């Protein structure tokens, strides 16, 4: 699949305000999913779409949503958002908000995102302005709705992004609550997007959408066509030396390194820093404000490598990621697709390098079954390995066997006891103790 189709975006009957935002964002030709989704969505049809990340689905639902809102202004001021987008992660919600601000900058439509980790009261106060476009994670959205800070009764366009992730992260109950608070499916337009249209995702679509058109882009190839995949079978203890050798040989410019555990992320960040490679670590225990700062600096190229758990594998659009490294093979096969999808975006080329060690090699069969082919395996040249410089106080940068605990350090020996007196009593026993006011205790 080529990145762009031959269809120009200005060939669609879009409002002038939307077209100006599209041109300013640098978009000229539609991507394949936009070429299919836009005619359906602009005609008012519900859509359930499957596509790889980075194929332009966010722009597809934003462009069609903006067009609907501008063409049919409400008869009375709305009490809540007219376009509601539900996203499973904070990072994805923030990314959709940024895209909406860029594409809709000439529409006059107000955009707001709500998610955890940011000033709760500030977000609630901003909702008083009643933004026309609201993006949020399920928990924060339902929380504000319960408090009366917003309402979903006036939603005209509903978008569910990364629907499969909603199930994986346990958000499906909150999502269903939100759907019940929205107008009935025949009184709104609904769009659902997912990396895989699994039976449970399609059941959600059948239940809450109005005869949705199913759209699939390249179902025969789940990962993007521009990704060059490589697999190394390597023991856990040799993963760091191999990684150092690859970094030295290939001179990675902008690299995402994925691990399965936040403790591994911290250890690997310390090890790479000790070996002269500037990195930051992004995991679930990092505060949201710090997460956003780290992502901003990584996008700006202030450091070449970002270590992340799967908190960062979805919904992030970072231009120019040249390499994705699965330092740990993911235990969920679908996470492999989402991780490697961080590179080769928007038609670019990229490398996805995976390490299969004794702890996580068991995930390999399920991953290859999902993507429908074997990942090309290579044997690393022994000269490629580099002896690492140990970080002061750092542990070995590798995962513990799943479910296993790290060994505890030995307890210090207790101090030696004082020798007993000749009478057989310890010296402390012969001393008289006093109460709180210095009086002798009563006998």
Description:
Helices cover 33% and strands 14% of the residues. With 443 residues, the protein is of the alpha/beta class. The chain starts with 15 loop residues before the first helix and ends in a 72-residue tail after the last helix. A seven-stranded parallel sheet has the order 3-4-2-5-6-1-7, sandwiched between helices. Strands 8-13-12-9-11-10 form a six-stranded parallel sheet, with helices on both faces.
Instruction: Identify the CATH class of the largest domain.
Output: Alpha Beta
User: What's the CATH H-level superfamily name of the largest domain?
Assistant: P-loop containing nucleotide triphosphate hydrolases
- Kindly state the percentage of residues in helix: 25-40%
Q: How many domain units?
A: 2
Strand sequence of the main sheet, in spatial order? 3-4-2-5-6-1-7
Find the count of extended strands (DSSP E, 2+ residues).
13
Structural class: alpha/beta
Mean pLDDT comes to 85
Order of secondary-structure elements:
HHEHEHEHEHEHHEHEEHEHEHEEHEH
* Percent strand: 5-15%
| Contiguous uncertain segments of 5+ residues | 398-410, 421-438
Using only CA atoms, what is the Rg?
28 Å
Identify the notable features of this structure and list them briefly.
six-stranded parallel β-sheet, 443 residues, alpha/beta, Rossmann fold, globular, 13 strands, seven-stranded parallel β-sheet
Task: Write a concise synopsis of the structure shown.
By secondary structure, this protein is α/β, with parallel strands linked by helices.
Write the layout of secondary structure elements.
Elements: H1 16-24, H2 32-42, E1 47-50, H3 57-71, E2 83-86, H4 90-103, E3 111-114, H5 120-126, E4 133-136, H6 138-147, E5 157-160, H7 163-168, H8 172-181, E6 189-194, H9 199-208, E7 213-216, E8 227-233, H10 239-250, E9 255-258, H11 262-274, E10 279-282, H12 288-299, E11 305-308, E12 323-326, H13 333-340, E13 350-356, H14 364-371
Helix pairs in contact: 2-3, 3-4, 6-8, 13-14
